[in-house]
Amino acid sequence: MSYNRMELMISLASRFLEDESIVVVGTGAPCAAAMLAQTLYAPNLMIMFEAGGIGPLLPSMPISVGDSRTFYRALAASSMPEIMETCQRGMVDYTFLGGAQIDMYGNINSTMIGSDYSRPKVRFPGSGGANDLASFCWRTMMITVQDARRFTNKIDFITSPGYLTGKGAREAAGLPPGSGPYKVITDLGVLGFDAETKRMQVESIHPGITREQIAANTGFELLWSPDLDTSEPPTEQELAVLREKVDPYRYIIGRS
Amino acid sequence: MGEPNFALPEAKQVLYQPAGGRRLFSDPDADAAREYFHNKSRKKVDKTTTAAEAVARLVSDGDYLGVGGFGANRIPTAILHEIVRQHKKNLGLAGHTATHDFQILVAGRCVNRCDVAYVIGLEARGLSKRARQAVESGEIEITEWTNAALAWRYKAAAMGVSFIPARCMLGTDTVQYSAAVEMECPFTGKKYLALPALYPDVGVIHVHRADVYGNCQIDGIMVSDFDLARASKRLIITTEQLIPEEMIRRAPDRTAIPYYLVDAVVEVPYGSYPGNMAYMYYSDEEHLQEWLQAEQDPKTLADFIERNIYGVPDFWSYLMLNGGPARLAGLRHQETLLEK
Q1: In this complex, is the C-beta atom of B292 within 8 Å of any C-beta atom belonging to chain A?
Q2: What are B241-269's pLDDT values in tens digits?
């Protein structure tokens, strides 16, 4: 069965979400991954949105993390402090972030491109809740296309913390111990982080993609897992749920 | 086994380290705020007025503004338009996911400084070209924060203290370009970020129901408005509906904002348009796209703002200009899922 890269990334991401855990998501692909996981793998996955929605029965894709879809027939319509404090307290297992740049330690830039902060080449919206979620949630994931500009050796601005400069750096900075980047799911492969160096390492390569392609689309030196694998493509069931239930109007999977 | 015994700290010098080098735009001092609140009127009087009068009386050039809701959800659009229409200048703004609200104020060139958590973007809708240009050019001075940081800065102010400890932002460039301070917890010795209290000069919040005194009910998510209402020195409420005090008294557990916090109450049906209002009407995505498109060129933006804000006397005329009751009925149907 044919599939596009967005369907592939969302399917792979959905498999990492364990049942009976809590995830804070934004709009777009992460929301789709959480909805897919909830349908197939993790029926008791609790989905939260940073503006206050807790456990909605999402009738369709929200356009904002604060729109009324995010608490449609929800368990609770709470508040931003309620969600952020739940994260800071250590009860949120997963989150998904996006950004313009990511480095080998999983640090993410969603603030600006350029070398002079006061005169940015390009200004982006900023942290929003991303820095908070990356600081507090146990496992941070990212769904993104992979290219050498985005996967950079020299990040212009660290908006949200990955492992900062390596092992122990988060803890030294005062961030809650044991939290940090978990998986980066791209259109080329699935990347995790080496336990010793906290550097990004390739865990699986998508069907039809080569090692050389991944290296060429990465601006820093990658580590390669000793158990390097080929990614399992989306199943027929995953594609059916994605196309018929999660995103019937192809708002997200049509973006590929 | 006896009870666990947690040692109190030894006396020592505690270290404070400015983590960010940017400007703090508002005074975090709790005693200065207490002095203001000491003199704030407690009168339970009819506070209903018009958007024009409320803005003329309560918003001055140079004030620092906090806007309720979340970008294009439950926002007080009528007041934001009125601020533009009255040419208010040099306002400070809390950019706590400020999307369409930021876009409106920037189109009117009303803002010259902003505590940024999230601005410029309209989430999944795209980016505001004019807002981006205003930030990139330095027209608006920026200090970086996060959504939680700004929410907790309101919370500190609402608590009546001058700072609150948090564990976000640490180790990043976000903190370097903030005005936060690193400190040591006096009990555990662990590193924390001290966030300064944020007391806006003016808070503006749109609610579902309020009585004439300003007792308010909000349906759906509160976002950060519980604390924003309490942190704000002056507070303007716009409400979908004015209700009798009796309805407030019948459900006191629903009162999110009590009257003594409030300085003006303006009844504005569809007041969050073109934003979403939970359980009432969905966002007008076509109109929001029109805004984004108009910004592609300074001339088309000027025409668009002239037509939609300067050229109309009030918010009702703006609604009529953009489809009136027929359009609003459609948005009500979208919200209640009667149509997609």
Answers
A1: no
A2: 999 999 999 999 999 999 999 999 999 99
